[in-house]
Fold these 2 entries.
Entry 1:
Amino acid sequence: MTSTARRSASTDPASDPASVGGGPGERGRLEVRELAKSFGAQQVLRGVTLSVEPGSTTAIVGPSGSGKTTLLRLIAGFERADAGMVVLSGRGLAGGDEWVPAHHRDVGYVAQDGALFPHLTVGQNIAFGMDRATGARARRATRTRVAELLEMVSLDAALAERRPHEISGGQQQRVALARALAREPELMLLDESFSALDAGLRVATRRTVGAVLRDAGITTVLVTHDQAEALSFADQVAVMRDGLLAQVDSPLEVYTRPVDRATAEFLGDAVLLEAWVDGDSASCSLGSVRLAPTTLRGRVQLMLRPEQIRVDEHGPIRGVVLDTDYFGPESTVRLELTSGREPGCETSTLAREGQVISIRHSSAFIAARGTELRLRIEGDAIAFPPNP
Ligand SMILES: Nc1ncnc2c1ncn2[C@@H]1O[C@H](COP(=O)(O)OP(=O)(O)OP(=O)(O)O)[C@@H](O)[C@H]1O
């Protein structure tokens, strides 16, 4: 766990904005403390604490209805929390006696559909948030700034004269970002901002937007339900479940060291096996598997990512292909484990012929049903408490 995550997991509710994080001098530092919010009888946020370093990017992921958008709206100032506080650059925005309205928060917000004004041109949309310019010189300055902002988001300045329906969805999202950037916010909130785009455009737009925000040093919080997007876009991933953050860590840590089974399964496919801890390894149907550090003892549930189980002609584990799910560069192969370990290879007391596992495999070679493959495990497995 990173130091940021450890701080984020703290339950110490600070009441003085200036004492939170790095204090007033730290432009762009976001601190969210113990935020709670209910709608009627439904408690949607149950004490969310999160630190975002200045200029860094955090992705909030979680299942539908877990409270991601509500958290973002509280940070933006579109809703009031029942308890807790929001501090940006050492300035209390919400909590205690503090309340700064949304339009005074130095916070940019880009919605899923961009929410451009359809009756205004692209240029007018971008200029909307800028100071009202009067006089020829001020109008020229606005035009120059609009052109700069269009260039910043990799759009041709000629698009300024078009209306939103005359440009593509990806271009609309970039215009929405340019409009939000025009106000030079300290914090940018992206609410499912790439979800409406198709796969290729989505990756390209995400990359451009990410680079613009990083280069401008703007602290960014992205809400997404897309795990791959969160892992690739952010410096820090916050996994939300039932109104709480289950884990806040680097993308690598949350994926390879998830704190519990639900987090592991939410972030990607998981191979889960009954196992028995034996020192720093565990015995399971795949034999003896090295464990990531754990305090658990005895019976556990073991988690491996499918890509950790590799096809290797000298591997000690054998399985017969049941079927293959092809999806472009990779396939998921379902295998039934068979006996017949190599001499000298430890036989697990939990070894079970007939157990079915899924692995990920390069699609360059598609194994036909009935083929016997030999396998080995790469890296450490994670131990979770056993199923009750
Ligand atoms: N203004 C509101 N009034 C009543 N209930 C609300 C309101 N806003 C959100 N909710 C409820 O709060 C819960 C969390 O909603 P929220 O939009 O924060 O979840 P989410 O994690 O962003 O979900 P999704 O990924 O589907 O957008 C949902 O059950 C939702 O119906």
Entry 2:
Amino acid sequence: MKRKIVVALGGNALGKTPKEQLELVKNTAKPIVDLIESGNEVIIAHGNGPQVGMINLAMENASKMEGSTTPEMPFPECGAMSQGYIGYHLQNAIREELLNRGLNIPVATVITQVIVDKDDPAFDNPTKPIGAFYTEEEAKKLAEEKGYIMKEDAGRGFRRVVPSPIPVDVAEKEVVKTLVDNGHVVITVGGGGIPVVKEGNSLIGVPAVIDKDFASEKIAEILDADYLIILTAVEKVAINFGKENEEWLDKLTVKQAEKYIEEGHFAPGSMLPKVQAAIKFAKSKEGRKALITSLEKANEGIEGKTGTLIINE
Ligand SMILES: Nc1ncnc2c1ncn2[C@@H]1O[C@H](COP(=O)(O)OP(=O)(O)O)[C@@H](O)[C@H]1O
Ligand SMILES: NC(=O)OP(=O)(O)O
């Protein structure tokens, strides 16, 4: 059965350095091409937290070196750079994997802007972790030296946080639709999209990082997708995650998922946005389904053999 699937790729699909990313995307391309080979229309979105943080820090450090001629790079431009850098590696890996299987399907990355509300309260409360992980001591030093806001990230260390507004619309949605309708494989809303606000006919970049799970949900609704698949490092969603009574879930109804959110089962900044995006998509139209699973299990997941399926029943 031909399905339209938006696939959201997590950090484990990309790695932390250009060399690592170039290697990792070869593996990432395989399950994506499996889905295409099975006859599905696939649209790809991905995160950029580590990458946008790395680019921004590097540009800032370079601009502050004595005698530097490197300009300061505004944050939205760093987001655009991260889309290009990740899209470049991903589209080549997918293209090559398709060709290796005798499939001559065009692949393209669309530099995508996502419209946000300039009055979104998220601008006053930075929550989105970006860049590398630091110890508490290193984090304090960075906060003092650079004025960064540093927060603990789901038990994994300290990271810089930036505002993360909710996606309202996708500026390039007609371009993406046209490419998808013509059978092209499209990489879009990379890093949640470059956040922009509308001012008359202008789109103005704002310093923020949109959550890619929410941006993927938005483009999935816009494209009238059947499935939103969020690929991360775990095969299933758990309740009591990491505890003795941990329980991995095959299926979640929207009602159950909302109850588990209230009970605090999903860590903010990691599993919580995925479950929230899955709920929103499942609720958006009858028959729409969301699946959270690991990269390696994507194809088995879509066949109903694994992963956590989120449905509205
Ligand atoms: N309830 C939960 N069930 C499963 N994983 C959870 C849960 N709460 C937190 N996690 C953690 O969240 C991680 C996914 O979040 P994250 O690494 O931020 O995602 P991404 O793949 O988008 O980079 C999982 O690998 C797991 O370690
Ligand atoms: N933009 C975004 O959500 O990135 P990560 O998935 O890397 O956090």
